[in-house]
Each structure stands twice: as structure tokens, then as C-alpha cells.
Amino acid sequence: MSEQDDRSRFEAVYRRTYEQILGYAVRRCSSPEDAADVVAETYVVAWQRIADLPAGEAGKLWLYGVARRVLANHRRSERRRLTRHTELTDEIEHLYTAPSHHSGQHGVDEAMSMLADSDRELLALALWEGLDPGEISIVLDCSRNAARIRLHRARKRFAKALEKTRPSASFASRPLIEKETR
Question: Is 4 exposed, middle or buried (0-12, 13-18, 19+ CB in 10 A)?
Fold first, then answer.
């Protein structure tokens, strides 16, 4: 078979089976992105093994088998990733988190967990790394003004989240425009 014949055959199988393989993956994955990855990898395998792909209905069943194996590999790698993430998080917390000898930490971790990743990153860059808005703007590849505004909004959202975890406390966010000292 020529490459053109293989291509035509693959395209026909793809058009005939795509929705069914996509449905299979969507029903088994935790996110649409993961399902898209599984489907894409399934068809990569189908293209690489086009000579092994049976004709007709048997081809669709063969693709289901490929998708099942791709999904199993995806789940295994996700478990490994989560395990490594947990181990790394534990190690980082152990190495870099100062022990809390007072109740001031109460609610802070919970409030941080309520924020979006982007807000947590902004606050971490400002507080943990000690970066000013100009430096943050370089890290985030945005203007200094955008970094200031994002940081201000993140601080406001953090204050609201902290109020939810500690209702008796009231927190004021820092002003949007900080006075520059000379």
C-alpha cells in the first residue's frame, strides 16, 4: 500500500470513528483536556500502526482497545505525577515552611487554598520571594501596572477568603498605588 492509500484509509477511519472514540474517552476521563489527549494519542497509534488496523467494524473495536490501553497509561502516569507532586510538596513544606508558634497562621492556609492558582502565585511572588510589582511584571511578562493591579486584586480576594476562615477578624487590603519611598 502506498502512503497516499494509507492516508486515505486513515482519514476514512478517523471520520467514521472519531465521535465514538471521543465519547469513550470523555466518559472515562476527569477533564475534557485529558479526554482530548487520550483521543489524540489513540489516533497517533492508529496512524503508526495503520497496517495493523483491521477493516470495517473490527477497526473500530481495535481503536477501542488502543484507547483503553492509552487511557490506562494516562491514568498510571497521572498517579505517578500526583505521587511525585505530593512528595515534593511535603519536602518543600518541611524545608521551607517556618514552624508556626502562634495562632496567626490559623486560617491563612485555608484562605490561600480558596484562591485561584494565579492569585496564589502572585501573593507568593510578593510575599515569599519578596518581589516588587516591577519584578513580578518581568516574571509574569506583563506591564508593571498590570502586575500592580493583579497583585492588588489578589490581596483583596485573599482578605475576603481570610475573613471567611476567621469571621471575627477584619482585614484591609493594601492600597492599589503604593507610596514610593526615596
Answer: exposed
